[in-house]
Structure formats: structure tokens, C-alpha cells
Design brief:
75% of the residues lie in helices and 0% in strands. It is built from 10 helices and no strands.
């Protein structure tokens, strides 16, 4: 009756005991996975260890993420969402062409920061985005990647940069793909992590220049 009254007055019903229990288990699994990925890395962490630390059955972990790679993407999506909620300041006024590269670099800076804090798991995230199986948590991360591409494209479309819509979209995709590729190369030991920001800024500068020239 209380639920019906709430719905009648346009109020959302409070979550039931089952929903609260599921949310609690999910939060514990996320916290355990993040702690173990940070401490031991992706490859050396097992699903059974995550279950033990989260104090749930191993089968429960598989109910939330069918594979260890999906569990990693579940963690990545949660961290990405938390970052976006913590950075909700309104957009600045239209940048000059010379500022667009700096603003794009700021948009991708969380990837570089994450790589420095969690180098091995972050490069596995990049690999999963590029080559992973088509699974639910990866799809949600891909949705956030598309949102990032649109943010970058908006800066390339700005009047002072002046890239046409198609060129801006292509340029944004090149930047995001380049970021992921460089992170993946770092996992293979083909790039020094301390140089990633320099490599990425050079890529951004080239794309901004090319997008502006396409007017």
C-alpha cells in the first residue's frame, strides 16, 4: 500500500531489502577488485581472491561479471563515472585555437593519471576497449568513450578551430584511439610511461592543426 501511495504521488519507492543486498554485494565486489588490481595487478588477481576479499561466494562474483576482463571493465566504468561526477563544472567559454589542444589534453589527463597510478590494469583496460569481447560492462565503458569523443569533437568544431563536423569527429576518434594504443604499447614495454603525456600531446597538436586546416 505504501508503494502504491508513493507511486500515486509521483515518488520513487525506496529500494527493498533484496535490492539493498544486491547493491551492497556489488559495492563490496567493486572495492575488493579495485584493491586487488591495484595491489597485485590484473593478471595476478583471481576471481576467487576477489570473492574472498568481498566476503561473497565466488559464484556471486560471476553473477556481476562473467569474466575477469568484464570485472575489470566494471571497475573501470565505476571509476569513470565517479570521475565525471566529481568534475561537473560548467564548460568554459569558447577557446582560442591554441587553447583547444590544452583543453583536449585535460580531457584525456585522467587516462594518463590512471596509467601512472595503476599501470598494468590501465593498459589492460585499453586493450579490452580496443579488442575485448562484446559484453555488458565493456559496452558501458564504450559508451563513455563515445562521450569523450564527442567532448573532444566539440572543441575541434569550435569557431576558432573551425573543423567541419566530419573532420572533428574523425579527429576526436584519432585522438582517443591514439591514447588507447599508446597505453597498450606501454603494457608491452614499447614506451616509457613517463613519456606518454609528451607523446599524446604531440598527437593532439597534430590532430588540432590538421582539423583546423580542413576548414
Amino acid at each position: 500500500m505504501r508503494t502504491q501511495d508513493s507511486m500515486r504521488h509521483g515518488q520513487a519507492a525506496a529500494p527493498g531489502r533484496r535490492e539493498r543486498a544486491k547493491a551492497d554485494k556489488r559495492a563490496r565486489i567493486l572495492a575488493a577488485a579495485l584493491a586487488l588490481f591495484e595491489e597485485r595487478g590484473f593478471e595476478r588477481t583471481s576471481m576467487s581472491e576477489v570473492a574472498r576479499l568481498a566476503d561473497v561466494a565466488q559464484g556471486t562474483v560471476f553473477q556481476y561479471a562473467a569474466t575477469k576482463a568484464e570485472l575489470l571493465m566494471m571497475v573501470a566504468e565505476a571509476l569513470w563515472g565517479a570521475h565525471e561526477q566529481a568534475n561537473t563544472a560548467p564548460p568554459r567559454s569558447a577557446p582560442a585555437a591554441g587553447d583547444a589542444a590544452a583543453q583536449i589534453a585535460a580531457l584525456i589527463s585522467p587516462f594518463v593519471a590512471a596509467m601512472r597510478r595503476w599501470p598494468e590494469p590501465t593498459t589492460w583496460v585499453a586493450r579490452e576497449i580496443l579488442f575485448g569481447a562484446d559484453m555488458p560492462h565493456r559496452q558501458r565503458v564504450l559508451g563513455r568513450v563515445e562521450g569523450l569523443e564527442e567532448q573532444i569533437a566539440a572543441r575541434l568544431r569550435d569557431d576558432r578551430v573551425g573543423a567541419p563536423g566530419a573532420a572533428a569527429a574523425t579527429g576526436a576518434r584519432l585522438i582517443v584511439t591514439g591514447v588507447l594504443a599508446e597505453l597498450n604499447r606501454s603494457r608491452q614495454g614499447r614506451i616509457d610511461g613517463e613519456d606518454v603525456d609528451v607523446v599524446l600531446r604531440r598527437l593532439i597538436d597534430l590532430v588540432v592543426a590538421g582539423a583546423g586546416a580542413s576548414r
